[in-house]
Design brief:
The structure holds two protein chains of two kinds. Chain A has one helix at about 1-20, and strands at about 25-30, 35, 45-50, 60, 70, 75-80, 85-90, 100-105. By secondary structure, chain A is α+β, with helices and mostly antiparallel strands. Chain A has one domain (about 25-105): Immunoglobulin-like (Sandwich). The N and C termini of chain A lie far apart (about 35 Å). Chain B has helices at about 1-10, 25-50, 55-80, 90-105, 110-140, 145-170. Chain B is an all-alpha fold. The longest helix of chain B has 30 residues, at about 110-140. In chain B, about 80% of the residues lie in helices and about 0% in strands. Classes of the chains: A alpha+beta, B mainly alpha. At the A-B interface, loops of A face helix 3 and helix 6 of B.
């Protein structure tokens, strides 16, 4: 039993370590009614901080409904990048604001 | 300069005739005009939220109400910081008069006729305000903070104009 518990703990630590070593964090700034530059390289498990610098509420909403981040004025929110693929997103309050995430396998 | 704005605004709101001549607007006048334009769109949005049964129209109107309130709150904070008192002027008065007439006109409409008239007016109104901002108000503004806020407003209202055009396309 004790051996099993140690093994589970060790596995968890290894897993946590491996994720920590490869996951990256990026910030996408929303300013002046536009999404700023999107990271050129994105992998599942990376994190994106959506930072709304405008005085208005925005959202980062995936067209495929895989995420819908509410961004009140002057706020930020963090999300974990999902499965590999190309995901178009927009602001549901200001549909002229658009962008695309390209997520590639690790 | 103000004459141009007034004529454009009146034409956009379906009015013609009276136009008021004046010199280039001062910062207190510009602040008043910009705030007035925002309040006009908030009143139009409130009317649409109350009258319309169309989900797209109501969503658009709610967005206009929220955004213009946010910009006007920012404008009030700025004039307070700058210790400037917005000054009423013929352009603001003409805008208010035209807007009141438009509200009364739209009040007589219902259903799809109201929805179409509201969204068509939103396209025209934002177009007019954007032209006034870019050709008159922003160039005339002397204070850098006021100029920056107007610029921010122009970016937002340009998006509003496109959004209104998208919604209006469904009523063609």
């Amino acid at each position: 039993m004790r051996i099993l518990r140690v093994a589970v703990l060790a596995a968890a630590l290894v897993a946590a370590g491996s994720i920590g070593a490869t996951a990256a964090q990026y910030t996408i700034v929303l300013q002046q009614m536009k999404f700023g530059p999107v990271p050129a390289t994105l992998h599942p498990g990376d994190t994106i901080v959506w930072q709304n610098d405008d005085i208005l509420r925005h959202s980062a909403t995936a067209r495929d409904k895989s995420f819908d981040i509410d961004l009140p004025a002057k706020s930020s929110a963090t999300m974990t990048v999902g499965a590999a693929g190309t995901v178009a997103f927009y602001c549901k309050f200001h549909p002229g604001m658009t962008g695309t995430l390209v997520i590639t396998p690790p | 300069m103000i004459r141009t704005i007034v004529i454009a605004a009146l034409l956009a709101m379906g009015l013609s005739g009276a136009a008021i001549a004046a010199d280039a607007p001062t910062d207190p006048q510009i602040a008043h005009i910009a705030y007035t334009a925002g309040q006009i769109d908030i009143a139009a949005a409130e009317q649409a939220i109350q009258k319309s049964k169309n989900a797209d129209i109501v969503a658009f109107a709610k967005q206009m109400e929220e955004d213009h309130k946010a910009v006007n709150d920012q404008a009030l904070a700025l004039v307070k910081k700058l210790n400037v008192t917005p000054e009423d002027n013929p352009t603001s008065q003409a805008l208010n008069k035209a807007a009141a007439d438009k509200l009364a006109e739209l009040a007589k409409l219902d259903g799809a006729a109201f929805d179409k008239a509201y969204i068509d007016n939103e396209v025209a109104f934002h177009k007019t305000v954007n032209e006034a901002l870019s050709t008159t108000l922003i160039p005339a503004a002397q204070n850098a903070d006021l100029k920056a806020l107007l610029q921010q407003g122009l970016t937002l209202f340009t998006e509003h104009q496109k959004h209104a055009e998208m919604v209006a396309a469904a009523f063609k």
